[in-house]
């Protein structure tokens, strides 16, 4: 299983939706809350090459993007291979 990291805030509906998709896929992930944590948010923004909105999702260190990007990967059939560790 690949390492999945998702930077979130507690009340973000996009974060909740992204986590729900990952759970439906049976994927385990590490959630990193940036609520009230400027250092975590700064690290997220740096890793996401300037992306400062949540969620920011990484699979095996590869920046996936946000919720819409995750759902687009799923719609295109590319998410399942990533979750199985078969990155294209």
Protein traits:
88 residues; alpha+beta; four-stranded mixed β-sheet; Glutaredoxin; 41% helix; 4 strands
Helix-strand string: EHEHEEHH
Strand content: 15-25%
Task: Look up the CATH topology.
Answer: Glutaredoxin
The secondary-structure class comes to: alpha+beta
Helicity level, as a percent range? 40-55%
Corresponding CATH architecture: 3-Layer(aba) Sandwich
Number of structurally distinct domains: 1
Over the alpha carbons, how many angstroms does the gyration radius reach?
A: 12 Å
- CATH class (first level) name: Alpha Beta
Task: Explain what this protein looks like in three dimensions.
- With 88 residues, the chain is of the alpha+beta class.
- It has a single domain, classed as Glutaredoxin, CATH 3.40.30.10.
- Helices cover 41% and strands 19% of the residues.
- The chain is built from four helices and four strands, in the order E-H-E-H-E-E-H-H.
- It has helices at residues 13-24, 38-47, 67-75, 79-83, and strands at 4-8, 30-33, 56-59, 62-65.
- The chain has a four-stranded mixed β-sheet, sandwiched between helices.
- Strand 1, helix 1 and strand 2 form a beta-alpha-beta unit.
- The chain is globular.
């Amino acid at each position: 299983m690949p390492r999945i990291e998702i930077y979130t805030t507690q009340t973000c509906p996009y974060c909740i939706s992204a986590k729900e998709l990952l759970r439906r896929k049976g994927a385990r992930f590490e959630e990193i809350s940036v609520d009230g944590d400027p250092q975590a948010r700064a690290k997220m923004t740096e890793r996401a090459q300037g992306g400062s909105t949540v969620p920011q999702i990484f699979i095996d260190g590869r920046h996936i993007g946000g919720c819409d990007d995750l759902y687009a990967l799923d719609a295109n059939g590319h998410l399942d291979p990533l979750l199985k560790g078969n990155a294209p």
